[in-house]
Write the structure tokens for this entry.
Amino acid sequence: MIEITNLTKTYGKNKAVDDITFTVNKGEILGFLGPNGAGKTTTMNILTGFISSTSGSVKVDGFDVLEKPEEVKKRIGYLPEHPPLYLDMTVKEYLDFCADLKSVPKKDWKNQKIDIMELVKITHVSHRLIKNLSKGYRQRVGLAQALVGTPDVLVLDEPTVGLDPKQIIEIRKLIRALGKNHTIILSSHILPEVSAICDRVVIINKGKIAAIDTPDNLARKLSDFSRFSITIAGPESRVKDALQEVYGIKYLETQGGNASKDEFSYLVEADKELDVRKPVFHKLAERGFPILELKSMGLSLEDIFLQLTTTETKED
Amino acid sequence: MLAIMKRDFRSYFNSPIAYVLIGLFVFIMSIMFMGTVQGGSADFTNGFASMNTLLLFILPILCMRAFTEDKKQGTEVLLLTSPNSLTSIVAGKFLAVYGVFLVMTAITFVYPLVLFVFGKPEGLIIISSYAGFLIYGAVAVAMCVFASSLTENQIVSAVIGFVMLFLLMVIDYLASLTGGVVAKVLTWLSLNERYQQFSQGIFDVTSIVFMLSFVAAFGYFTIRVLERKRWSQG
């Protein structure tokens, strides 16, 4: 449904988004997780056509956002971080305006409006001016706006920020329900929120993707394993055999290398309790395969997670 | 386009801004008109001249919200991510302000009406003067809407709009100060002589096209400003 390929956005020397690639399947709820300033909003702004990318492409339903912006925009409902509300309008007037703006046919709109207001529970405030609504209700009106015209894709930027705990639970429930009929990208800097709602998570840090996986897999990787990237000189299959003999290594994967020089890099996941670095060294030394590079990878991911999990406790 | 136009137009009348400005306009115009009538004249040429001068002060304030307000409230995102082209967004914004301008102009129909009841003004001149005023107003509105796309601050927007309209007004004087090519270009750009033709009852197609192309040009500049912001790398 959504294909993001090598997306980059630079501001001066600063890369807000740095070579991001991922896809979102139809009907999926994808969590976009990262600390503040990681590039989540920038990515979403590019995806929705609000700003342009420096390089790379974004396709929604096969349409490129730069080539066919209107086709893409038709398919996306966007709730930015600050809901784009006209404070001098009533909720009803505002939603009518949004329907007009998105050219929703008049005859469909009458029923759709009732359904949307029912869904996000704003029917009883529909005659009030938006400027007199609380933050929680404004957020819901913003969400209602994104739903106008029943777009296939919903892009929600930090939809639960600034809400009280009860409202947060309600909005999360609502997003799950919407996930049945929509493809959703949702950003957050709170890990438990994303794991509660999303089918898949993209973790982004400093503009780069740190990991993409299901919440369960991510949790497993983090809690039990430490991850290393090792570059070793030697024939691939024999090196692999040697590594597999090391006690504690649970997962091994070739990540690339240079066959002519017989140098390959491997991703190794090992038991966290055991420090496998020394046994790996001894084993490879014994077989005569020199280690060219050994890099711990799990740590950076863990750092991000740590940051994300602690933010939640601070805010609650 | 129509959605934005309707919303903005209504928003002007939901806030005091349209009433205050139109009130002020009509108040000053009425004082001027009393002068005309007391002098026993049925000539409304002076009336148009003062209407024109008043635009210099009123339009920058009327237009200053056009884009600045959306940038400040964050509703710019809503417009720019909706399935509408930049052209139709800018056109919608322009038409909303122009609509308020039309309401303001419509009220001034009262003055020639009074002249017709009590005297014998020249009908054709009044009609052509109004045509000129409406076209000149479109140019001024397009300039001020462009000014509002340049900044997030309403005051700054109003000042830029004022300066542009002022330059448009004194462009012939500037031309006389300079010389050579610059003077030629400035004179060519000047709308004053073309506007004068209308108040003499002359409908010149080239003048009309020339002035309307000003509207199109500033509409285009506004689109470019919005576009540039989207592509910004800074």
